[in-house]
Specification:
Elements: E1 2-7, E2 10-13, E3 18-26, E4 30-39, E5 46-51, E6 57-59, E7 67-72, E8 77-82, E9 91-101, E10 104-109, E11 113-118
Parallel strand pairs: 2-11
Antiparallel strand pairs: 1-3, 3-8, 4-5, 4-9, 5-6, 7-8, 9-10, 9-11
């Protein structure tokens, strides 16, 4: 199984920055794609960005240029640097990973971390 621990959320003023982290631990062979999703109140969960083990990245079109995803494969950790934050970025941000282990291939979600951007 895989456990995901997220950190870095909080309250920030518009124009500010935050850096989210998500560390994967447990019994697995490898982590493939890691990503961040977000869900604002009353809205569906949406992809923010994801990154493969080879560091190929994919972003939601509306967030390109403000958000940067990266990962440290040695630490099984994915990061999301968020700059020029806007009130519309307020949401719960969820880490998501594809892991391979004795359990086969499985997708896991973190518990979520709240990001609130004040105007």
């Amino acid at each position: 199984q895989v456990q995901l621990v997220e950190s870095g959320g909080g309250l920030v003023q518009a124009g500010g920055s935050l850096r989210l982290s998500c560390a994967a631990s447990g019994r697995f062979f490898r982590i493939n794609t890691m990503g961040w999703y977000r869900q604002a109140p009353g809205k569906q969960r949406e992809l923010v960005a994801d990154i493969t083990s080879g560091h190929s990245t994919n972003y939601a079109d509306s967030l390109k240029g403000r958000f940067t995803i990266s990962r440290d494969n040695a630490k099984n950790t994915v990061y999301l640097q968020m700059n020029s934050l806007e009130p519309e970025d307020t949401a719960v941000y969820y880490c998501n990973v594809d892991a391979v282990g004795n359990f086969g291939g499985r997708n896991y979600w973190g518990p979520g971390t709240q990001v609130t951007v004040s105007s």
